[in-house]
């Protein structure tokens, strides 16, 4: 075989089939529009101050925007909201530095559109603080907010799951009809101190409002009576400054990674953090892939006897005890402790049992 | 999209000029062809978000290959499809491949099987050279290697592949649908 024949043979073995392009229809153009409708975020390595401008959406229809799944299915409650005129459905937020941190009107069309398509409930009572915000993607998510010893957890799900959940609650107690800002639902009583309301499906999702801590029925009725449904901008503006919305992702990721060594080839720009998250959930979604990549690198270095790389990976994993964002992740202490346990095991020479915590497993 | 800033127009040009090369790049490196749609979508999304870092258009293709490499590496690490962007592209892609059943001749499968047996660096050097059609100096940019080192390693990789193919005249028992190789992980 001559060199020329050899080269031709290798080229001919290319599995790519150019004719595929002809069958893509408008999908390539649609993808371009999806991409250009997302906010431009600064590089995480960039110093703050060079702000991106909000993006306009190039095409209508949320259905085409896969990225827009980032902010779906939203029910939200938080303080600092005044109801509108008597009988009015919308509420306007008080202006406070924390409640309007993102800046009214600065949201991308994508974020607003997603918010508009979902229920948005706020507690119109002072003193409530949002915590444990998780998800807001793909029509599921939850937020727990609290005041003093009491909390209220709002979770929302696909409307298709309503029947099963409602049937289950019928085993809990007899349902009692209630309304939350004219949104009908059923109230169930677990015991004298614990209650739940299932709001009926609306716009593709339904909401479960569950008490956390010790409540009285009178307190629950009073709080439910103060829940209002608000417009998208109000809802977005009411997110406390520490909650990470899509438009804050890069800035916050940079902060999370400030003292975290990055594995070889790991590009923070490829991090994909969906939805809206509280600092802990966000930290997990940023540190998880980094930890996973370090563990992968450690295993690779170990298997290939790459001593330098092994030492770097070991040092990085060992340093995880000092990562500030990891120290601040506090989901019952489980996630960070699991991370450190695995990191320490590797740093000590491994091996890691398959049942040990592994940030490569998204379920963890 | 008829209007827009210069910046947007530039990105549209870059996208139009590089969509197919990036799709081909991704197709050559994933196990399931539909995954290539995810890689392409993700790569251009990263490129859009980092478009202020984008080099002049003459150099942008190599920069995109570098982005795609990192996206691919993360894709393999996570072991999961992203599935949030470019959903229609993935669907179209699947049906497009169904249109062409792609009966492969044994000779091609032999070459692919031999490539799959090379180490990651050799394989990536050869794929970038023969399939992406990059010059050694361009391969060096994508892989962030010294151009002289690329030439040396390319020569060695070529010899190894030739050796493997020479000893493997029959098609392999296990038929690879696509190359299905893992991404070369950076710095390794």
From TrEMBL, chain A:
Superkingdom in the source lineage: Bacteria
Keyword annotations from UniProtKB, A to Z: Membrane, Transmembrane, Transmembrane helix
Transmembrane segments: 60-81
Protein name: Uncharacterized protein
Automatic annotation (TrEMBL), chain B:
Protein name per Swiss-Prot or TrEMBL: RNA polymerase sigma-70 factor (ECF subfamily)
Organism domain of life: Bacteria
Keywords attached to this entry: DNA-binding, Sigma factor, Transcription, Transcription regulation
Residue ranges constituting the RNA polymerase sigma-70 region domain according to the UniProt record: 16-81
RNA polymerase sigma factor 70 region 4 type domain boundaries: 110-161
Gene3D superfamilies: 1.10.1740.10, Winged helix-like DNA-binding domain superfamily/Winged helix DNA-binding domain
A Pfam family the protein falls into: Sigma70_r2
Family per similarity comment: Belongs to the sigma-70 factor family. ECF subfamily.
SUPFAM superfamilies listed in its UniProt record: Sigma2 domain of RNA polymerase sigma factors, Sigma3 and sigma4 domains of RNA polymerase sigma factors
Organism listed in the record: Micromonospora vinacea
């Amino acid at each position: 075989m001559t060199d020329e024949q050899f080269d031709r043979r290798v080229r001919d073995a290319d599995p790519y089939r150019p004719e595929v392009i002809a069958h893509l229809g408008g999908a390539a153009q649609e993808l371009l529009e999806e991409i250009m409708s997302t906010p431009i975020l600064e590089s995480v390595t960039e110093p703050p101050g060079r702000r991106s401008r909000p993006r306009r959406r190039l095409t209508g229809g949320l259905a085409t925007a896969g990225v827009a799944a980032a902010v779906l299915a939203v029910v939200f409650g938080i303080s600092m909201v005044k109801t509108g005129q008597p009988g009015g459905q919308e509420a306007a937020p008080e202006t406070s530095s924390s409640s309007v941190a993102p800046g009214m009107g600065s949201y991308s069309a994508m974020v607003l559109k997603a918010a508009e398509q979902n229920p948005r409930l706020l507690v119109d009572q002072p003193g409530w603080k949002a915590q444990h915000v998780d998800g807001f993607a793909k029509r599921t998510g939850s937020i727990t907010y609290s005041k003093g010893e009491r909390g209220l957890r709002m979770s929302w799900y696909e409307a298709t799951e309503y029947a099963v959940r409602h049937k289950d609650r019928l085993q809990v107690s007899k349902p009692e009809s209630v309304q939350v800002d004219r949104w009908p639902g059923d109230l169930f009583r677990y015991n004298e101190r614990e209650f739940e309301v299932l709001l009926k499906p609306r716009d593709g999702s339904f909401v479960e409002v569950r008490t956390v801590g010790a409540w009285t029925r009178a307190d629950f009725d009073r709080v439910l009576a103060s829940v209002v449904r608000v417009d998208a901008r109000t809802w977005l503006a009411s997110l406390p400054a520490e909650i990470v919305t899509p438009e804050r992702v890069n800035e916050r990721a940079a902060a999370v990674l400030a003292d975290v060594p990055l594995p070889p080839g790991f590009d923070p720009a490829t991090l994909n953090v969906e939805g809206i998250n509280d600092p802990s959930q966000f930290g997990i979604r940023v540190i998880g892939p980094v930890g996973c990549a370090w563990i992968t690198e450690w295993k690779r270095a170990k298997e290939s006897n790459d001593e330098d790389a092994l030492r770097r990976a070991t040092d990085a994993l060992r340093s995880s005890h000092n990562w500030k964002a990891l120290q601040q992740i506090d989901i019952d202490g489980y996630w960070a402790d699991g991370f450190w346990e695995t990191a320490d095991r590797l740093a000590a020479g491994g091996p890691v049992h398959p049942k040990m915590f592994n940030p490569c497993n998204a379920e963890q | 999209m008829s209007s827009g800033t210069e910046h947007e127009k530039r990105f549209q040009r870059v996208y139009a000029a590089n969509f197919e090369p990036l799709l081909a790049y991704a197709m050559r490196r994933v196990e399931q062809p539909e995954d290539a749609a995810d890689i392409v979508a993700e790569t251009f999304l990263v490129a859009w978000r980092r478009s202020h870092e984008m080099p002049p258009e003459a150099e942008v293709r190599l920069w995109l290959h570098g982005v795609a490499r990192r996206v691919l590496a993360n894709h393999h690490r996570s072991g999961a499809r992203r599935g949030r962007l470019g959903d229609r592209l993935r669907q179209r892609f699947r049906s497009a491949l169904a249109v062409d059943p792609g009966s492969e001749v044994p000779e091609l499968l032999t070459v692919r099987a031999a490539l799959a047996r090379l180490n990651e660096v050799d394989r990536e050097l050869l794929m970038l050279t023969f399939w992406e059609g990059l010059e050694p100096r361009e391969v060096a940019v994508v892989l962030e290697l010294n151009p002289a080192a690329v030439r040396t390693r390319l020569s060695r990789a070529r010899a190894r592949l030739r050796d493997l193919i020479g000893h493997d005249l029959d098609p392999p028992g296990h038929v690879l649908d696509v190359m299905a190789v893992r991404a070369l992980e950076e710095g390794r």
